Amino acid sequence: MTDTIDTPQTPASPAPEPRRRGRQIADAIDERLGIKAIQYPVPAHANSVAYSLGGLTAFSLLILIGTGIILAQFYNPDPAFANASVRHIVQDVYAGRLIRGLHYWAAEAMYVLAILHLLRIYFTGAYKRPREGNWLIGVAMFALTIGALFTGTVLKWDQEGYEALGHNLEISKLLGGLGFWFNSGFSANVPILVRLYIAHVSLIPMLILMLLVLHALLVKRHKISPRPDNPTETGEPFEPFTHHLRRIGALGLILLGGLTIIAVLFPPGIGATPVEGIEVTRPPWMYWWMFTLENWIGLSGILWGAGALFVLLVAIPFIDRNPRRYWKQRPIAMLLGALILVLLIMLTVLEAVTTPAQHLGGM
Amino acid sequence: MTHHPSDTRRWPRLALAALLAAAMLAITPVNAWAHGADDSDKSLVLVRQAIALIVNTPANMDAITDKINDALDAADKSNVNLTFVQRAKDSMDSNDLHQVRRLLEAAIGARVHTGRADPVPIGNALPLVGTDTGTLDVADPMPGRGPLSGGDWVLLALALAVGLLGVGASLQLRPHLPHSASLTTDAEGDRS
What is the pTM of this model? Predict the structure, then answer.
């Protein structure tokens, strides 16, 4: 038996092209999530390397989160096992040495890129009205990055990490009531390593991500700052922000490749298991400038040095009222910035060439 | 709601004043620090410190000897076999730090670094709190890597490929900006 169904003849509609179908899907998602909002126009100079440093800092954060999630599966924050668990990651976990190396070097890259981004903002005067708020958010993110580096140093729980913690505990005493969180008596039944671990994997990344969203939203609101040598953006083409993301992705691949090569060739070691009451290691290089101050005036030198730098960073947009952004028109700001930079480099070099002194009291 | 024009000018100063006030609070010290470490009065702690000095700064024989002497003279000698500590002190003359370390580890019941025997139990372990290190035996530092393996070379090749892909893509996506020399005049004009 055959059934025939008379249906009205309609012209066969051609199958949608893949590109058009992709656009339909994108439109459907955009209708619900508004993703096309990130296609706002940005000037072409946003795609230069100097103006992509912030994006590359975020790319480093992405690598850190990815590798950090893997490391967290094998790391044991119990003081009795922490050092051994890091050794286990390196020796026994598949690709553990690479993942840890990538995490370590991505952290260094994030620190360096954040500084370069900050310097670019400073020397192009991009912190000026109306971007003061976003500058402060950036400074807060930089402070949190240093916090993540510090906690990461302690987590490996070797002599270097333990001495870093010792310095922090002593500084927290100098801070008075504000240093309560670092006081081991604050939560007497929990090892401080466990609390630092929670800060490293949860509190600090969460705060950085929250501020990053705010940072990006304010970049969109105030637009990417024009080049100081072309304040009116004359003759400069505009492109969607998604092109800027693609460019950051491309530069990020270079960063990822470079970091992987460094991680394979120079994986970080692990120091001896920690013993309290001795001070025999040199801190990581990013803290060297503060430790020169410590060698000169004692532990409070770290507090005063870091405090002065961050107070200055916070105050910059409110001190510098000169509306000009071109460097030739800001001689005082340029001189001050260069002087501070040279001072920090000199203090760093001094720590590198001197024998570390003992400053810690008993912990 | 209306804003007085001076309100918008005042907030940066108020924010700065608040920050300065917070900074003043922050620098109120509650405890002065001592220059130099406080010596422990526990022999167990001092023996561990001596082992750590052997591991971290083996060339500093004076510091190691001082720690061993301190361990022998400490007020609290519980959980330490002082015979081994004394033998370790005597062995310092031979400059054999492996032997000194082995004796010190035996003195506190730690896993002896030259052997595979289980540590001798000294007593029940206490729960770790605060800044307790949890260290009983001081493990040697572990270097970053040895010679490159075949897997390392594969990783290096892959990383190089990823990096080159990034170079190609970033060149493709590089911005085409107006020449900066032609813009200098505009910026100079901005000076007025």
Answer: 0.79
